[in-house]
Design goal:
This protein has a single domain, classed as Tetracycline Repressor, domain 2 (Orthogonal Bundle). It is 73% helix and 0% strand. It is built from 13 helices and no strands. The longest helix is centred in the C-terminal third of the chain and has 30 residues. It starts with 15 loop residues before the first helix and ends with a helix.
Length: 302
């Protein structure tokens, strides 16, 4: 489908698979492992079934609402971009009314899930929704919109901690800061592939503002800061047994994350974006899962 062409008429009912595709459900692995890390640390590895289920439902619902809303906000831009013209809304596989309904239902499920956790989570639910939905318009106003996306995913660990404890602490805040910087960095890399189209459409990104080499350099800096924030988070974690913080396994996980980030930046070195899917999707999906695995080893095995 060429850019700017009218979307084909939607035929029949959209399937559940269409909606899973609309929100890229598989990308939940970016933030969910960090929420589970915070939950495991908060409970010493023994979260109640009620809290675990509530956190999982809230995470999935908030992310689904955010992604569907983003597709709604960007549907006209997506239709004019050859790379995104076959997405569900511009291609007509899902109608606007269906996407609006899905967004509203996901947001409602998130609020109800927060209500089952504790009063603080319920009170902060509208704030969280404002952040995750607001990202979709940030790119109209600031080249640092990547960090707004990072904030939207980064609040997940703090939310999980609040669900388990009902109060703030240093560990989840540092963990959230690390996630925000990590996501902001890899989203800055991903945004490089649309630099010309974003410039034409009047959208903001680090690549539009500083060029692709500049955006890649800033992404490196953000990832260095992300690793530092996570290292501080691990030093401020509550005690387990005789240890004063998360131990050797968690630190090995941080080393693994660092090596994966180095690999990610080597894949796009010199502005070569031909392997950006591997750099963006594959490597970043491994990072959270590996860290969760290493932290779980610290909690349950060491």
């Amino acid at each position: 489908m060429r850019a700017g062409a009218a979307a084909p008429r939607r035929r029949g009912w959209s399937t559940a698979g269409d909606y899973f595709g609309l929100v890229k459900f598989e990308h939940t692995v970016f933030a969910l492992p960090f929420a589970l890390i915070a939950l495991l640390v908060a409970t010493g590895g023994r979260p109640s079934r009620r809290v675990l289920l509530g956190v999982l439902v809230a995470m999935i619902a908030a992310r689904s609402a955010a992604m569907a809303f983003n597709r709604l906000a960007d549907r006209d831009y997506d239709a004019r971009n050859p790379r995104t013209a076959d997405r569900h809304l511009p291609a007509g596989r899902i109608g606007v009314a269906g996407a609006v309904t899905f967004t509203a239902a996901s947001a409602l499920i998130f609020v109800l899930a927060a209500r089952t956790l504790n009063p603080l989570c319920f009170a902060l639910a509208p704030v969280a929704l404002t952040v995750v939905l607001g990202y979709s318009y940030a790119k109209r106003f600031t080249p640092w919109s990547h960090l707004v996306l990072g904030l939207g995913l980064g609040i997940a660990p703090t939310g999980a901690w609040l669900a388990a404890t009902g109060h703030f602490a240093a560990f989840p805040l540092w963990l959230s800061a690390g996630v925000m910087l990590w996501v902001g960095g890899f989203d800055a890399i991903y945004g490089c592939q649309d630099v010309e189209i974003d410039r034409r459409e009047g959208l903001r990104s680090l690549a539009v503002r500083f060029g692709v080499p500049g955006a890649l350099g800033i992404a490196k800096g953000l990832h260095v800061l992300a690793v530092l924030c996570l290292a501080i988070a691990f030093r401020t974690a509550p005690a387990f047994g005789v240890t004063a913080d998360l131990g050797l396994c968690a630190r090995l996980g941080l080393v693994a994350m660092t090596l994966l980030l180095i690999w990610e930046h080597r894949l796009v070195r010199g502005g070569d974006l031909r392997r950006i899917d591997r750099a963006f999707f594959t490597i970043n999906s491994w990072i959270g899962m590996l860290l969760l695995l290493f932290v779980a080893c610290d909690i349950y095995l060491v």
